[in-house]
Amino acid sequence: MPAFCDVALPVPLDRAFTYSTGLFAPEVGARVLVPFRNEKLSGIVLRLHDDPPPVEAKPLLAVMDEQSILSPQLLDLARWIAQYYVAPIGEVLRAMLPLIAEVRRHVLYRITDTGREALFAGAQQGSSRRSRLPAAEQDREYAVLNYLESGDPARVSAIRSKTGASIDLLRGMLRKKWLARETAAETRTAQRTMRVARLAQSLDGEARLPRLNENQQTILAALAGIDGGVPVAQLRELDVPDSTLGTLVRRGLVAIEERPVDFLMSGLSIRHHGEHKLIEAQQQALAQITGSVEEGGFRPYLLHGVTGSGKTAVYLAAMRHALERGKSSILLVPEIGLTPQMAAQLHRAFGSEVALLHSALLPEERAEQWHRIRRREARVVVGTRSAIFAPVEDLGLILVDEEHDGSYKQESVPRYHARDVAVMRAKLAGATVVLGSATPSLESWNNAIEGKYTRIEMHERIHQRPMPEVELVDMRREFQETGAEHLFSRTLIDQTQATLDRGEQAIVLLNRRGYSFVVLCRACGEKLQCENCSISLTYHKAVTDAEAHAPVGQRLECHYCGYKRTIPQRCPKCDSEHLYFLGAGSQQGEERLQEIFPGARIGRMDRDTVRGRGDLERLLAKLHSGEINLLVGTQMIAKGHDIHGVTLVGVVGADHALGLPDFRAAERTFQLLTQVAGRAGRGELPGKVIVQTYYPEHYAVECARQHDFHSFAERELKYRRWMRYPPYAAITNVLLQSEDFGQLAHWAAALGRWLSAAEFPDVRVLGPATAPIARIKRMHRMHLLLKSQSRQSLQRVLRLLRHHAEEVGIPPRNLIIDVDAVHLM
């Protein structure tokens, strides 16, 4: 057995750490528990060797896995992500393993030598010499030191229980170095259990039964004839007191057992419109994909199909084909809300072969699903971006639905893009990868133009359904003709009324949360801003709680950091009472629609109404059943929902994004308009779209009106080529952040001077400059934008930059390197 192993730890340091194996025999790709500074961390073994490190290596504390849990292929993928996205390998591996539920960490405190001296001095000279705190607090300090005097570390909860010390007191003792803080970790089984009730004995003969009251008979009747028993939680739904079950247990008639919980797929009640025979375009697309799966080897496809063309049916058929040939599949969807909808269709098609992976699952649930996949109990995986790391064997097919969606980009370390990682994983596995969208990203579209991807086109909707007619309403002319600013145009109101009168459904996109997104003082011009971010607070109007019969929820809220405050009666700057609410969000849109259409059954879909795991499913179920006939919401409503009763879509204010300082503004606007327009006319009846705009001449709006992606892409790519933006150059956003603005400016200037002095000829540097959003979560922000037509040159500069940042004392947590940045705000 090699004497040493290199371990990747989840810390922001770009290196592995060497430990001695001792009596352990870990495998490459297995988890181990190791000491690191004052903590105990779990890491992944990257290499076994006999090369002694320059300093004495600490021994491993434990081996958590007898065998490797990461295949060589996934380890190679992790190394590629670390290299491509300039990210620490340990943090990459942490993102790949959803097994946090299997490691429990505890914070411990122990006494230091300085603390012992203080304890000894206090015992000899009196507590008044030890600290300047009040006498009562000094007594608690003495009690803490006395409790820890043995040298054994103790948990915070135990210390507080025994001594009455507060967290602030313990932190003060840490600052005085009387105490040291460390963490301990222990492994545990993440398998969830549930309590199940079953009959304790055969109760066939009534003569053998003791006297039972009506409630007890109700429970026994529910258990009768069910060999496996009934979950206790389900018995609580019976109209009997909770104590009844306990009485039956004490009398020996019912037994309670703890059993492992099999993961139950939630949200599978989404209505499915049945299987349809594939049309010719679908069959041709399927033939190309399945042919590639059968041949084996890496082959990337771009599936460009208009909204409603039946891309999902092609996905299902392709995965069925792969499964029949012993191959596994991964299907990525952009939003958690779409996962249950897609999982419902996959579950009907493949049963228990389906596994779910997304961040809305509990840690224990994610661990269960991950182990099911690894044990090959599930060979069809559906999930959001992290599902690309699923430990499937014999991977034959990867599908990325709505590949253009920005949510595939991870906004924390490691800042990977799941679409690009999917392509690399398919390459490493020798698998087929399909990127599907009605509005492909220009990066993928250009790869198809250059022949890197094979393009598959699906130009028509299934059953020859027509694309919806799109009408533009010029809101400048609307203002001139009505003499007032209105949220909804006359055309949209008239068309919505006609739609409701025909018994059909309508959707209105209003892509802002809350009621109003600016609160302004008309006396002094002061805007009410978040105290943590340089962002205006959004006004959320009170709503009436039907149970409490009282208004709840009125507040000003920051949608970046979550800060909330009450509505002031007067301006905090000039004390004026003239506060003015500007802008309209989805909440105000719902209120206005209720006033205009009092008979409509209105629903709202945004982050305020869709919070829990089942909220979206319940809302969509009401929409499918017709319980809701008018839906207003943010861009969530544009995300792939298939509601056949919707014949009208209204778009309000979606072109505001054209004014943002982002080179992707036109692309995002076109994608949003096209995607939300695609919700109309997906059933038997034709659809219509009303787009309210202040920029009717803009090519993004005009091309969306004509459903003409090709013309939009041609024009936008021409501008990108002129300005050398992606896909014609690689970009990286280097973001610096600090609570101290002076320190931040010093760091930014140091990096700017270094980049200028180094004179990298292949890399153009823009900045440093203040970020468009200058402060978020109390952190001031400045950034530099690096552009290059040579990705190798750019990555070399980024590594040198990170090394220089360490030399000038910029902490890793304060320097963010976002390769292929999607959001530049």
UniProtKB/TrEMBL annotation:
It catalyses: Couples ATP hydrolysis with the unwinding of duplex DNA by translocating in the 3'-5' direction; ATP + H2O = ADP + phosphate + H(+). Binds 2 zinc ions per subunit. GO terms for molecular function: 3'-5' DNA helicase activity; ATP binding; ATP hydrolysis activity; DNA binding; zinc ion binding. GO terms for biological process: DNA recombination; DNA replication initiation; DNA replication, synthesis of primer; double-strand break repair. Zn(2+) 2 binds at residues 530, 533, 558, 561. Zn(2+) 1 binds at residues 521, 524, 571, 574. Pfam families: DEAD, Helicase_C, PriA_3primeBD, PriA_C. Keywords: ATP-binding, DNA replication, DNA-binding, Helicase, Hydrolase, Isomerase, Metal-binding, Nucleotide-binding, Primosome, Zinc. GO terms for cellular component: primosome complex. The keyword Isomerase applies. Residues 292-458 form the Helicase ATP-binding domain. Its EC number is 5.6.2.4. Its cofactor is Zn(2+). Initiates the restart of stalled replication forks, which reloads the replicative helicase on sites other than the origin of replication. Recognizes and binds to abandoned replication forks and remodels them to uncover a helicase loading site. Promotes assembly of the primosome at these replication forks. Belongs to the helicase family. PriA subfamily. Component of the replication restart primosome. This is Replication restart protein PriA. It comes from Acidobacterium capsulatum (strain ATCC 51196 / DSM 11244 / BCRC 80197 / JCM 7670 / NBRC 15755 / NCIMB 13165 / 161). The lineage of its organism: Bacteria, Pseudomonadati, Acidobacteriota, Terriglobia, Terriglobales. The gene is priA.
